[in-house]
UniProtKB/TrEMBL annotation:
Residues 189-205 have a biased composition (Basic and acidic residues). Residues 1-160 form the DUF2344 domain. This is Radical SAM protein. Residues 185-205 are annotated as: Disordered. Signal peptide: none annotated.
Length: 205
């Protein structure tokens, strides 16, 4: 592994758009610099052996130029809102998408500040309840709105809880229990607002 120079060298490992605290993720990307060429498959095996259970390396490629920061500018999130009817969520989402600006309040170490969430929201739609609950009839009988949203990675970062706060502002939507957010994908937006796999050009080289 390559290290930085100076009195306190650090390994050259860079996380791109790391997920905020308190959310799950199926799509985290990391860039590792090495001093000599290594076999990607062997590196994947070594990393998997070193990582704790539940954190798995899904894919690994040798970079063919550029860096990941240039290839990632948005994330897709899956937000589950237990106790919220899908129809109620869909109405709130429609109001959010119709707005030009939706400001929410965020608490920072320097006090509260206002953040306009709307420009970062590329798309948002409500999915029907999936079969995630398995054969648990009680779970399936409870209302659960599932929001799929693509959010630009802007500065300051717009997080899933900011999107939920925006729904509260525009439609007074307040889930009875904390929502569960999972990042499903990251990538660069194409002309139709879809995410392009950031490793695609390395696989094709």
């Amino acid at each position: 592994m390559a290290y930085s120079q100076g009195f306190s060298p650090h390994p050259k490992v860079s996380w791109v758009g790391a997920a905020p605290t308190g959310v799950a993720s199926e799509a985290e990307y990391v860039e590792v610099s090495v001093v000599e060429k290594v076999d990607p498959v062997a590196l994947k095996v070594a990393l998997d052996e070193a990582l704790p259970p539940g954190i798995d390396v899904v894919d690994i490629v040798q970079a063919q130029g550029g860096n990941l920061t240039e290839r990632i500018d948005a994330s897709e999130w899956r937000i589950e809102l237990d106790g919220v009817e899908p129809e109620e969520l869909a109405k709130a989402v429609s109001v959010l998408l119709a707005a030009e600006s939706v400001e929410v309040e965020r608490l920072t170490k320097n006090g509260t500040k206002m953040l306009d969430v709307r420009p970062a929201v590329v798309s948002a739609l409500v999915e029907p309840r999936s079969s995630d609950a398995g054969h648990d009839a009680t779970a399936l009988s409870r209302p659960c709105g599932i929001l799929m949203t693509v959010v630009r990675q802007v500065t300051p970062t717009v997080r899933p809880d900011d999107v939920l706060n925006a729904l509260r502002v525009v439609a007074d939507l307040v889930p009875p229990v904390p929502a569960r957010a999972t990042r499903m994908a990251q990538g660069r937006l194409d002309g139709e607002g879809r995410l392009v796999d950031p490793l695609q050009q390395d696989r094709e080289s």
